[in-house]
Amino acid sequence: LKATVIADADFVISKLDRRLFGTFVEHMGRCVYGGIYEPGHPTADANGFRQDVMALTRELGPTIVRYPGGNFLSGYDWEDGVGPKENRPIKLDLAWHSTETNEFGTNEFMVWCKEAGVQPMFAVNLGTRGPDEARHFLEYCNHPGGTYYSDLRISHGFTEPHNIKFWCLGNEMDGPWQTCAKTAHEYGRIAQETGKVMKWVDPSIELTACGSSQRLMPTYGKWEYEVLDTCFDQVDYISLHHYMRNDGNDIKEFFAEIEALDYFITEVAAIADAVAASRRSTKRIMLSLDEWNVWYKAHTPDDLKKPGWPKAPPLLEEIYNFEDALVVGGALIVMINHADRLKAGCLAQLVNVIGPIMTETGGPAWRQTIFHPIADCTRLGHGEVLRLKVDTTTFETKSQGDIPHLLTAAVRDPQTGHVAIYALNRSTEDAMELDIDLRGMGAGLALVAATELHHADLKIVNTKDNEVIKPVPNGSATVKGSRLTAQLKPQSWNVFAIE
Ligand code: AHR
Q: What reaction does this enzyme carry out catalytically (predicted)?
């Protein structure tokens, strides 16, 4: 196969918002307990934070981390997770049929964020609760002092406000599985009033309204329109959730799930703009893909709920194989190429629960296959996303028709001139000769790194003893003058760093 690409420094889609490369920590399964937090673990620090997980988190490099849920959020009382640990109530978590000890809460998470070098993305419970708790919680987090809730935070040892800027108004409120799900009308109103009072408490915050919990929801589209039509003036973002599946064990259809994400983003932006148009408004609601990943294997009733009310049981512990890493890489390319509307993204989740990092409670931590495309993006994706002209062969799929073999994105930092190119060859049979014309980027371009993820076995997985899937150098790549050429192996994820 052959593919040619023109990348011109002057043809820019948008500046890349680095919050596109975020992740998610929910109180569920072993994400918090046994994941980021495990007092007594041989690597735990004085706060109980696992330092092996911390090191892998830093290597993964997420920019923003969503917390505390997820479905858990819709029954969560934030007050339970602050103050002296010995006074914190133990409660039933209806979302995951677990027992929540509340040993870990807002302040612990904020300390963890600082150590990990990430920004927080918080969410307020609009399932069982509403505007009153949300305004008090925000006052607790962001008000400097001199009021009941800000002084309560200070009394808990946090003199400085947390200054949390990015807030989600609830989670998946359209889903019947949600604790106190809502109709679009009910949710739109509660989001409007909650958003209003939250911005009165702190006008510097940004707010995300819940979009549909997936593109296949029967209310998809109508939900977005009605919700935004109601809370348009209060919110800045609308959320999307997209989990890609390979139920039919058909790699071509699995690859086509990436196209479904592409359509999803385009459609939600169009709906948001239709709401703006109906008001003759120039305001543009941006998109936050605040949950996305591959998730379909760990989806049995046993993965979603364990008998009884166990504490931190193993849930949704998806074991990722090589094809999952390719699909995750493809989704990242789509996200980058939508940088004009998509301003935040959270890979769900960070550790153990559909996570790029796996741990054994009391044991080691390791990288799943999907870790690598994410780390490649967080490490090298800085600057502006270029609008590429791509010529590539295509292949046929049942769900999305003909789709391109090559998916690619280029990000260039105008300050340093550094360019990162991501390229996914979706042919499972053929290698691809890639030829990229790098225009308007000056003389003396040099290839500083070329790596590939490739394996003949799409189903191979990483284990704690053997991380088979990891990037290796692609020796075929060269940059001569303004031309990058490389051979992309069949079914491969490729990264080129040029300076
Ligand atoms: O990420 C796992 C779950 O998926 C989240 O709790 C929920 O929001 C979504 O359905």
A: Hydrolysis of terminal non-reducing alpha-L-arabinofuranoside residues in alpha-L-arabinosides
- What gap in Å lies between CA 148 and CA 77, rounded to an integer? 17
Burial of 189 (0-12, 13-18, 19+ CB in 10 A): middle
Chain segment 128-180, per-residue pLDDT in tens = 999 999 999 999 999 999 999 999 999 999 999 999 999 999 999 999 999 99
Residues 6+ away with beta carbon under 8 Å from 186: none
pTM for this entry = 0.97
pLDDT digits (tens, 9 = 90+) for 85-129: 999 999 999 999 999 999 999 999 999 999 999 999 999 999 999
470: region left, alpha or beta (phi > 0 left; psi from -120 to 50 alpha): beta
Q: Which two tokens stand for residue 113?
A: 């964020």
Q: 369: Cβ below 6 Å to ligand 1?
A: no
- What is the structure's pLDDT at 5? 98
Active site residues: 172, 291
Nearest CA-CA partner of 492 in 323, 360, 344: 323
